[in-house]
Specification:
Number of domains: 2
CATH topology of the largest domain: Aminopeptidase
Helix content: 25-40%
CATH class of the largest domain: Alpha Beta
Mean pLDDT: 92
Largest sheet: 11 strands, mixed
Distance between the termini: 74 Å
Bound molecules: zinc ion
Number of strands: 19
Shape: elongated
Radius of gyration: 28 Å
Oligomer: single chain
Length: 484
């Protein structure tokens, strides 16, 4: 009799085990208080603004990894929780310019930019003067030649690009007004070692006059009257650059599926920010501490759900990338060195700035989120979001899907590198605000109740995508403008 009594109890236990928790219940593991706890650390002073390649970035990565381990999620990169990558940065160590033997001084007579400084020294005995209306339609043979041009409003960049396109060695721009800032001698971080074959600099009118054969300084009129053509001028530009390697890493963790083991859903954010400037920390609480905290909270909610019997149909990968503020570098590295096949990646849900409201939404109308990119690659995306939103009642603001959006938000966060490879994406965003990219983007300004709602909605969207029978269909043409 006693033994028999146990049987129904065991049966009930077994049934409870098999019955999986539903998405809305699981979403309740995401709370305003929990989000605040994580964000207070991620956007805290100890993280020093999380600039790519710095100690602050490494501390933030260590915190994220500690959380994923705590949630018992698996390493996402062949046994590792990081996907390390190398960045390169150029510095100009010295620069000495002589024109016809006469020495000139950097930042007084001429200005350079680290990305357009020759690898070694530059010597030439002639220049081609191309005047002020030089463009890429020019029929002058400038291949391998050093050009000199006068400056006119906003056209200098076009001239530099034209010279580059036509295969010139470089271009020297004679300034209308001398630059007021010192030369930028530190180059941008880049995924490839810089190879500055093309050179450019800005010089004073006085140096410009010497370049064009003048023995004294030309007046503006004289300069305007200088005929185009070849001038025998000796230029000796001795420069020294060095390239340093800057290590960085994306953080990546996975909740493995037992069913569709070769399919993946990605949930991403960028954990890097602007770091410190003159001892002042850029905390980046909204950008993108909020998205990073969201990914951690979503990962935790999924992990908690698995304890109650949930098992995703396809793998869920949580990735916090670095190098976003330097030009979407961490996500680009991933898209060029994917750990999991991109064609088997059903979607990337990218969360970048979800803790605030922008000036468009004030007071009562703050119950919104911008959803961007949904209409680009898969017609499955929008109906899913709309369905999930039926019980969140948020305003899903899709205005930035407009291809003519001058803000170009679609190109400005990490989902873009997934989309460029054909992976359907949704970018969740609250818009910019007065604290955007300023030291005042701090935790105390985050609206955690609103953030909780947004993150729960993203969580349920992810749940739906992880549980669907088929991967999202890719039925829109991959038609990406090259520009970012
Ligand atoms: Zn940013």
């Amino acid at each position: 009799m006693r033994k028999l009594l146990f049987l129904p109890v065991l049966l009930i236990c077994a049934l409870t085990q098999a019955q999986t928790i539903d998405a809305s219940t699981a979403a309740k593991a995401i709370t305003a208080a929990g989000l605040k706890d994580h964000l207070s650390i991620i956007a805290g002073a100890e993280m020093q603004g999380r600039e790519t390649g710095t100690e602050g970035e490494r501390r933030a990565a260590a915190y994220l990894i500690s959380q994923y381990k705590k949630f018992k999620l698996k390493p996402g990169n062949n046994g590792a929780y990081t996907l390390p990558f190398k960045l390169y940065q150029d510095k100009v160590v010295s620069s000495e310019l002589k024109v016809n033997g006469e020495p000139y001084t950097l930042d007084k007579d001429y200005w350079v930019n680290a990305s357009n400084v020759p690898q070694k020294s530059l010597k030439t005995n002639a220049v081609i003067f191309v005047g002020n209306d030089f463009n890429d339609k020019s029929t002058v043979d400038v291949k391998g030649k050093l050009l000199v041009a006068t400056e006119n409003k906003e056209r200098s960049m076009m001239k530099i690009m034209a010279a580059q396109k036509l295969g010139a060695l470089g271009i020297i721009i004679i300034a209308n007004n001398n630059p007021t800032m010192a030369s930028n001698l530190t180059g941008r971080l880049s995924l490839t070692a810089p190879t500055a074959n093309f050179v450019s600099m800005t010089v004073t009118k006085s140096v410009g006059s010497r370049l064009l054969g003048g023995s004294k300084d030309f007046s503006d009129q004289e300069l305007a009257d200088v005929p185009k053509g070849v001038y025998s001028t000796t230029i000796d530009w001795a420069t020294e650059r060095n390239t340093s390697e800057v290590p960085s890493a994306d953080v990546i963790t996975i909740l493995p599926s037992k069913e569709k083991t070769d399919e993946y859903l990605f949930i991403t954010s960028h954990y890097d920010h602007l770091g410190m400037k003159d001892g002042v920390i850029n905390y980046g609480a909204d950008d993108d501490g909020s998205g990073t905290t969201s990914v951690v909270a979503i990962a935790n909610a999924f992990a908690e759900a698995t304890k109650k019997g949930f098992s995703p149909k396809r793998n869920i990968v949580f990735m916090n990338v670095s190098g976003e503020e330097k030009g979407l570098l961490g996500s680009r590295y991933y898209s060029e060195h994917p750990v999991y096949p991109l064609e088997k990646t059903t979607a990337d849900l990218n969360i970048d700035m979800v803790g605030r409201i922008d000036p468009t939404y004030k007071g009562d109308s703050m119950n919104y989120v911008y959803v961007i990119g949904e209409d680009k690659l898969s017609s499955d995306l929008q109906p899913i979001t709309d369905k999930i939103n039926e019980h969140y009642h948020m305003e899903l603001d899709r205005r930035f899907n407009d291809p003519k959006d001058i803000n170009r938000f679609y190109y400005r966060s990490d989902h873009f590198n997934f989309a460029a490879k054909g992976v359907p994406v949704i970018f969740y965003f609250n818009g910019t605000h007065r604290d955007y990219h300023k030291p005042t983007d701090t935790v105390d300004k985050i609206n955690f109740d609103l953030m909780e709602k947004r993150v729960r909605m993203i969580f349920e969207t992810a749940w739906e995508m992880a549980m669907r029978e088929d991967m999202l269909k890719r039925d829109m043409p991959l038609n990406m403008p090259a520009g970012r």
